[in-house]
Amino acid sequence: MIRIYSPLLIPVVSFIKWTGQSLFYFFRSIAGLFFLSSMFSVAHAQTAHNPIIFADVPDMSMIRVNNTYYMSSTTMHMSPGVPIMKSKDLVNWHIVSYACNVLDGTDELNLENGKTAYGKGSWASSLRFHNGTFYVSTFSGTTGKTYIFSTKNIEKGPWQKVSFKPVLHDHSLFFDDDGRVYMVYGSGRIMLAELADDLSGIKPGTTSQTLIENASKPAGSNIGLPAEGSQLFKVNGKYYLFNICWPKGGMRTVTIHRANNLAGPWEGRVALQDRGIAQGGLISTQTGEWYAYLFRDFGSVGRIPYLVPVNWIDGWPVLGIDGIVPDTLPLPASHGLNPGIVISDEFSRNASKATLPAAWQWNHNPDNEHWSLSQRPGFLRLTTSRVDTSVLLTRNTLTQRTYGPACTGETAIDISNMKDGDCAGLILLQKKFGWVGVKAENGKKNIVMVSAESGDPKEIARVPLEQQTIWLKATCNFENQEDRALFYYSTDGKAWKAIGQPLHMSYTLPHFMGYRFGLFNYATDQPGGYVDFDFFHTFHGISEK
Fold this sequence. Notes:
- Residues 1-44 have low confidence and may be disordered.
- The chain has an 8-stranded antiparallel β-sheet with strand order 6-26-29-39-31-32-33-34, with no helix packed on it.
- The longest helix has 8 residues, at 23-30.
- The protein folds into 3 domains: 1-45, no CATH class; 57-329, 5 Propeller (Tachylectin-2, Chain A), CATH 2.115.10.20; 351-540, Sandwich (Jelly Rolls), CATH 2.60.120.200.
- It contains 2 helices and 40 strands.
- It is mostly beta strands.
- Keywords: Glycosidase, Hydrolase.
């Protein structure tokens, strides 16, 4: 068995004999992780590691309400959409809700009539808390609208939705002290729009104004990606605008502009150029420390969040330590992503509460008539409702994030009710996907491995199958951006056999998302067949046996 473990994990010390030493000296000598303040008081050392979340959580927007932090992110074509995460320490996060079950019901978002919303859907959100109400805004090039969701209870809802045109790209929702509400948005030229009091659209009788003519200017004139990703803050009476731009031949760069008045004048500077860690904003702790939350493109696992210490010097937030994002932070250690961001699931539910944990998202809007946790208790049933030509077009593919530095996903499927032409299994979902599963053809079933690494899906291997239950596994190695996946099957859930060939995973812009584990079932000949997934297990590391 080979396992690759996260650097966040601390190895368990084997049996140690000691006598005559105080508890203080024991822990200090073994790990340096515990400090004794008295004979009966032990405090755990505060050590967090970057990235804070080694998984695809891009375009973060973050707030603190009293002692609790909340964060929204982008999941684009996934449903439910606009995930809301909660933390007490800025390090350990768990998904508590979504701002919308479905963004809208277009053909693209429903995977209907050959249309898709891959890489589109809803983009960067803005999370705010104002006068006892939580607000999350986003925008969609798919629908051509800007959306604002609001609730009094961010964890339980319900959420109210308003939408309007036009699309305000990469906007920042901003409640000013004078009671007026704005959105700052744009690319290169940053614009300011005042909203109506009920947030139903741009305030009647007003037009958007240019806030900053060229927000990329602090990074030079040779710009490939103009300034975008606006996030606006007001600290000690001054306005601070965070943006990202990308100089040609350089890296993703954080710029910050500041002004004494919203109308300007604005002055700007480069705030960070380190490994492309960029795009985000500011958060303060309840004890007065400041951090910038940013993310980094990290190959096929996606865009992963970092926290960057901030010091205030001459009225400017100064990011990093000598311009570098540190690998460790004086914050609590991570407890891992499972549960919280990802989760293993036995699919066992009380019949009256047949819902899915928040870690799950459907690939596009689901067809709720054709999946069930109650038709066979203890199993997830996926029933085909139509004929499709590709796994990328099928509805009701149920997904979770993959995560680094390495991870494994396993499932078991009862395939006894598949129809000829059906394909079902475990996918690593992106444009250049790979999957292991079962094809039913001519009254027979075969275990297959399919790879779309070349751009077109090809069956790489097949093994005849004579039984009605099959175990499937996929492993992902993202360490040092190796981006390598392997696929396995088992006929007893104990002994695993590799199948097919390694998949070199690639982050592609048409999907604009890190790879995801997915459970799927689709028909190529006739609808009505179904499969039952017994469980989904995921864990850090790679197991090849």
